[in-house]
């Protein structure tokens, strides 16, 4: 239960907020904690908005006009604009279609703050200005441009969103806990957004399985332990997603300089080590048989469940 100072209550044995970057559960929880004077001020700040992204998927295309679209293997291309704040991508998917995207780096905080609407308020008719700016961008599928892909994409299949990020400090209080985008919104550049949410869910399930009792103190302590374990790992993943975004989307002078250094001068071993950062942690549900580690990448060890081991020992005795 969340009980606010104004008398408002939110009931539930354990309330899990996993309802996205604009989580209603988080907003209710933070409202209570803010009134009590226990919420870190930074948790009330808006999400960072460093980029705007427009994406879409075309209908089936003619392989003669778009050579390579019918290849068995995906044809993946990331293009960096010259003297531009845009980067764009185009990659083939089954059905002779192309997924495409255009990312605009917002050059200043002031520019980002001028965009007052949230992701949920984007509509297809608001795309026209950005479409005009990117129509002439060349793509490596024959003699075509991003405009050709846009024209081959149904309007309702075009979406435009902020690429937002923020790592909140407060994840839990009492019987309430936040997971996924509700407490850490990552940029999509490193592919860690959904990964961290699933890791949260598995780790939280493991802690609930190990919980000693159902008293308020047991639940509160368990959720504290969950946050303590996950926060440091998510912080690394969060920083990795920001660095990756600057390498893939960044168009400032510093971003271009770093991209040149990273992709032209760093040894491959260093690049591989950076690529593994954030994905070494692969938690499994501790209350079922574990899947053996496969592959060549590093994997952080997982603490075994003493409760599960004890239960299995009892079964063996029978």
Brief summary:
The chain is α+β, with helices and mostly antiparallel strands. It has helices spanning 24-36, 109-113, 128-134, 146-151, 193-210, 216-248, 253-264, 268-276, 306-317; strands spanning 2-3, 9-10, 15-17, 48-57, 76-80, 86-93, 97-105, 138-139, 144-145, 159-167, 172-173, 176-178, 184-185. It folds into 2 domains: 2-40 and 169-288 and 297-306, 3-Layer(bba) Sandwich (FAD/NAD(P)-binding domain), CATH 3.50.50; 49-164, D-Amino Acid Oxidase, Chain A, domain 2, CATH 3.30.9.
Describe the structure.
The protein is an alpha+beta fold and 318 residues long. The protein folds into 2 domains: 2-40 and 169-288 and 297-306, FAD/NAD(P)-binding domain (3-Layer(bba) Sandwich), CATH 3.50.50.60; 49-164, D-Amino Acid Oxidase, Chain A, domain 2. The protein is built from 9 helices and 13 strands. The chain has helices at 24-36, 109-113, 128-134, 146-151, 193-210, 216-248, 253-264, 268-276, 306-317, and strands at residues 2-3, 9-10, 15-17, 48-57, 76-80, 86-93, 97-105, 138-139, 144-145, 159-167, 172-173, 176-178, 184-185. Strands 5-6-7-4-10-13 form a 6-stranded antiparallel beta sheet. Strands 3-12-11 form a 3-stranded mixed beta sheet, with helices on both faces. The chain is globular. It starts with a strand and ends with a helix.
